[in-house]
Design brief:
Layout: E1 5-12, E2 17-19, H1 20-34, E3 40-42, E4 47-49, E5 52-62, E6 65-77, E7 83-92
Parallel strand pairs: 1-7
Antiparallel strand pairs: 1-2, 3-5, 4-5, 5-6, 6-7
């Protein structure tokens, strides 16, 4: 966590949010418990421009993880290269997510 996220980093999407290492860790734990067996995969290149980045991901849609999830995340990097903030958009998800 500390190698990837700034201490005051934040994540937000339409379903979950977390602030700081503890908040992001708790949010990640909730997602993992709700979708056991799912693995997130990077499905695009990473666009990087002046401390900002964009990438697409997907999860599920495979045996044992049948629901398909996909999204696009936009990130702002801290001066040291760690995530300062990530804003996620869900491009595909079941209606109950």
């Amino acid at each position: 966590m500390a190698r990837t996220w700034a201490e005051d980093g934040s994540y937000v999407d339409p379903v979950v949010a977390g602030d700081g290492h503890a908040g992001i860790s708790a949010m990640t734990g909730k997602v993992q418990s709700r979708f056991p067996g799912y693995r997130f995969r990077l499905v695009s290149g990473i666009d990087l421009h002046i401390g900002r980045m964009r990438y697409r991901w997907e999860a599920g849609g495979i045996e044992g993880s049948p629901l398909f999830l996909a999204g696009t995340d936009f990130a702002v990097l801290a001066a040291d290269g760690r995530f300062a903030s990530v804003t996620g958009f869900l491009d595909a998800r079941p209606s109950f997510v």
